[in-house]
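Protocol step 4 of 6: structure prediction from sequence.
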Amino acid sequence: MKILITGAGGFIGQFLARQLLDDPSHQLILTDVIDCPIPKGSKNPQNATVIKGDIFEEIDKLVPKDLQAVYIFHGIMSAGSEANFDLGLKVNVDGTRVLLEKLRHTVPGIRTIYASSQAVYGRPFPDVITEDVFPTPEGSYGAEKLICEILINDYTRRGFIDGFSLRFPTISVRPGKPTQAASSFISGIIREPMAGKECVVPVKDRSFPSWVCSPKTLINNLVHALTLPSDALPSHKRTVNAPGLLATVQDMLDALAKVGGEDKLQYVKEEDDAELGKILYSWAYKFDNKLALSLGYKPDTSFEQAVREYAEWMKEQEQLNSA
């Protein structure tokens, strides 16, 4: 299968590309505005082509007539979208629509998997969020994601694409450097201390809850989305809340101490950040994933397991870098 991944330089794109390249029958087109390497340790790196550049300028190269599936990951993150409205709208909405139009006219009916977010929900929250809860985003990022979900629905209803949108929980533990996402500390609270670096938690509230998912579980669910029957959902309702689990700041600190050692807690600094707090407290944190589970998506077992998976990934990277 020939598959395009936009935003492929990010960690989700890199993790997904590596897993897809385990299958020698897949050919990948990886694109991003930043450097987008073929992931280290890929079993079939010769099956991947990298195109670096702006989606608006490279659109003709990105969608060949034999393309069979697309993952749409490109975007400006939450805090970045809030800080720069015009840039967020251009990349997150305009860039997605340009791509959908190209798919519509070049490869109609193509399987298209869109990365959305729990940020589409805003207060007041019910006790539990289901897909039946009407999304009312409180930030530009969530609004832009909701706009694109609606586009995916309508393009699918009309037969232009065969789309599914997955609303991601906060992904932790993300490798790499801190991002512009307001939720960046949810990975940083593990990643930085395990590397002997300081992480600032922008809320002095250890009961602060987050709805999270490990990279490994997310990637498995994204691959599963390739195989969903087209009629698994109504053609005008293509959005699913991806499975997650509830973890508080205290849960994260406990997992850090258990996996990395008590000494790692010294690198965690807690202080209230009013601006980030406005965003963080506007996010839902308890979801009913019955729909996702009925479609075959899988949940994590625990946040501690996610931290152990990150520790294993770090060891693997060290071995690859020293080889």
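Step 5 (inspection) to follow. The mean pLDDT is 94.
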